[in-house]
Amino acid sequence: MTPRSISLYIRRERKRDKFCLLLMLVMLFSSFYSVNALEVKAPSLPARVDEGESIEFEITISDFKYADRIVLTSSLEKIKGAPLFYIQELDKSFDGPYAEIPVPKQLGSLTVKVKGRAPAGTSTVQLDGLEVTRFREEELIYYQVALYQEGEKEPVTTPAFKHFRLNIKKKEEFGQALQQIPEDFRSAKQVAQELFDKGLVREAFELVEALKQTKAAQTPLWLKLAPIATALFAFIVGYWYGSSGGEKEEEFD
Q1: Which of 43, 144, 152, 199 is most exposed by smallest CB count within 10 Å?
Q2: What is the pLDDT of residues 37-67, one digit of tens each?
Q3: Which among 10, 249, 42, 8 has a CA at the least distance from the CA of 144?
Q4: Global pTM?
Q5: At 160, phi and psi to the nearest 5?
Q6: What are the pLDDT digits (tens) for 224-240?
C-alpha cells in the first residue's frame, strides 16, 4: 500500500470509530430514557377550584417497574365515607393525603381513584382581640406520583403532578363589596383594600359597610372619617403584628 492509501484507510477507520461511538451513546441514552419513563394519564382538571369543592377523578400509572416504591400525595382532604386514594388493581384504600406502596412487579399499570375536597383557603390567629386572617396563596396539588428505590430519599425520576389554586370566598365577597363603593371614596377604598390584604378582614368589611351607610345617610364629615381612622389604627396594629415575626399562626392542614 502506498502512503496515501494508508492515510486514507486510517481516516476511514477513525470516522467509523467515531460513528460507532456516537451510535453507542445514542442507544445508551435512548435506553435510559425508555427505562426511566414514569407515565401518568389523567383527565383534564381545572386550574382553579372553590374552597370545599368536591373533586373526583382517576389516574393511570405505568412504566414503574424500575423502582421499588410508589408514593402518592395530594392536597385534597378526605370526604367522609370515602377513601382519598383507592388503587383498583390492588384493592387498597388510603384515607390520608400520603400513600406508599411497593411496586407490583407483576402489573404493567395501576388505576388510582382520587376523591376528596378542596381545603379551606384561610386560617386565623387572635392577637389581643384582633383577628388576623392568612390567605392560602400557594399552588396545591390534585395528585403527585413519585418513584423511589429502596432506602433512597430522592425519587429516581421526575415526579408527575397536577397543580391547582383556590378560589377563596372571602376574597370574592370583598371584591364585590368594594365595587359598590363610588369613586368619591377612592382613598378610603384603598385603605380598605390594604386592611384586607394585611389580614384585617373584619375591619376591612366594617369600613366598606360604613362607607355604604355614609353615602346613604349623608352624615357629617367628621362622622365619615371616624370609621376610617379606626380602621387605620387597626391597620397599623396589624402591620406591626405582621412585621414582628413573633405571631403563632394556625397551620394549614
Answers
A1: 43
A2: 799 999 999 999 999 999 999 999 999 999 9
A3: 42
A4: 0.71
A5: -100, 135
A6: 555 555 555 555 555 55
Sheet strands (E) in 4-139: 39-41, 48-50, 54-62, 69-73, 85-87, 92-94, 98-102, 109-117, 122-127, 130-135
Q: Who contacts 68 (Cβ-Cβ below 8 Å, separation ≥6)? A: 102, 103, 148, 149, 150
Task: Report how far residue 134's alpha carbon sits from residue 164's, in angstroms, rounded to the nearest whole number.
Answer: 19
Element at 190 (helix H, strand E): helix 186-197
What is the rounded CA–CA span in Å between residue 34 and residue 235? Answer: 57
Those residues with Cβ within 8 angstroms of residue 147's Cβ, 6 or more apart along the chain or in another chain: 38, 64, 66, 67, 69, 70, 71, 103, 155, 156, 157, 159
Predicted confidence (pLDDT) per residue in 68-117, tens digit = 999 999 999 999 999 999 999 999 999 999 999 999 999 999 999 999 99
Which residue in 170, 240, 233 sits closest to 205, CA to CA?
Answer: 170
Three cell numbers, residue 154:
430522592
Instruction: Single out the residue of 241, 23, 55 nearest to residue 132, CA to CA.
Output: 241
Residue with cell 349623608: 218
Helix (H) or strand (E) holding 167: strand 160-167
Residue type at 121 in one-letter notation: G
Residue by residue, DSSP assigns 48-61 as EEETT-EEEEEEEE
Terminal Cα-to-Cα distance of the chain (whole angstroms): 81
